[in-house]
């Protein structure tokens, strides 16, 4: 079974969706670790309730991003982690983690990338007046919400959508799409081509 670490910073509804899918037998992976840069985040409570080990840390206690990532990398290697799942982890990842995990680290973003990367993607989409938005799952490179796209799902923006109503629908799509993509990766159905850019799905 593929050994997975989830990285999150806040609420953790995607973490919960993954853990629930595993518990209910809909997803055949083993969630071995939650990595969290905010020790008081709600996702930490979710992990404790689910019996998932937590690696919580305070970035300020480290001299640099690279330094705490080296600490994380050592923990991932000690636990034999094969796939990193970023789920609302609000930090840029450096080459310390990107290099050893390239093609084995994924992120989910609440827009149809490359539109609206960065924070508040849902607000950005509403402010722009686009009529269609969605969710993207992609491999992680060194950029902000960049990297080879694995899967996308579109949804219509309704005229009366507020940020809250749209965010609710987007999160429902996220929970379903992320579980589906993680399942496909663990089944060996998703491959990052040697050029490091294209993703093929079997
Ligand atoms: C999600 O919308 C995800 O796309 C973005 O951060 C949010 C995390 O939500 N990267 P949650 O913490 O999983 O509820």
Overview of the structural elements:
This protein is of the alpha/beta class and 202 residues long. Helices cover 36% and strands 24% of the residues. It has helices at 13-23, 42-50, 65-78, 95-101, 121-128, 163-186; strands spanning 2-8, 29-36, 54-56, 83-86, 105-109, 132-139, 149-156, 190-192, 199-201. The protein has a seven-stranded mixed sheet, sandwiched between helices. Strand 8 and strand 9 (199-201) form a beta hairpin. The mean pLDDT is 97. Bound molecules: 5-O-phosphono-beta-D-ribofuranosylamine (GRF). 5-O-phosphono-beta-D-ribofuranosylamine is lined by residues 8, 10-14, 87-88, 108-110, 174.
CATH architecture descriptor name of the largest domain: 3-Layer(aba) Sandwich
The geometry reads as: globular
What count of domains describes the coordinates? 2
Main sheet strand line-up: 3-2-1-4-5-6-7
Structural class: alpha/beta
State the helix count: 6
Give the distinct bound molecules: 5-O-phosphono-beta-D-ribofuranosylamine
Helix percentage range: 25-40%
The CATH superfamily of the largest domain turns out to be Formyl transferase, N-terminal domain
Ends distance: 19 Å
Mean pLDDT: 97
